[in-house]
Amino acid sequence: MKTLKAVKCGESTKVVKLHGDGPIRRRIMDMGITKGVDVFVRKVAPLGDPIEITVLGYELSIRKADAELIEVF
């Protein structure tokens, strides 16, 4: 299983599945990150938190812990 946390800066990937429950899953979905969506990793902070991504034309920052819950292809 590969997660969004493992994707390198400058790479694009597709979301396969979201893990987690309740408010955490809802927060990820509210950002527009759902199954089948393309995600481009723009920048990763030196310590890995946060990860800056582009989803559906929007530039977002996501926490490393949340990125571990997003399974990608």
Automatic annotation (TrEMBL):
> InterPro entries per the record?
Fe-transptr_FeoA-like, FeoA, FeoA_core_dom, Transcriptional_repressor_C
Where exactly are the transmembrane stretches of this chain? none
Q: What is this protein called?
A: FeoA domain-containing protein
Which GO MF terms are attached to this record?
transition metal ion binding
Q: Which residues belong to any copy of the Ferrous iron transporter FeoA-like domain?
A: 2-73
Organism, as annotated: Acetobacterium wieringae
The superkingdom listed in its UniProt entry is Bacteria
Question: What UniProt keywords apply to this chain's record, in alphabetical order?
Answer: Iron
User: Which SMART domains does the record cross-reference, listed alphabetically?
Assistant: FeoA
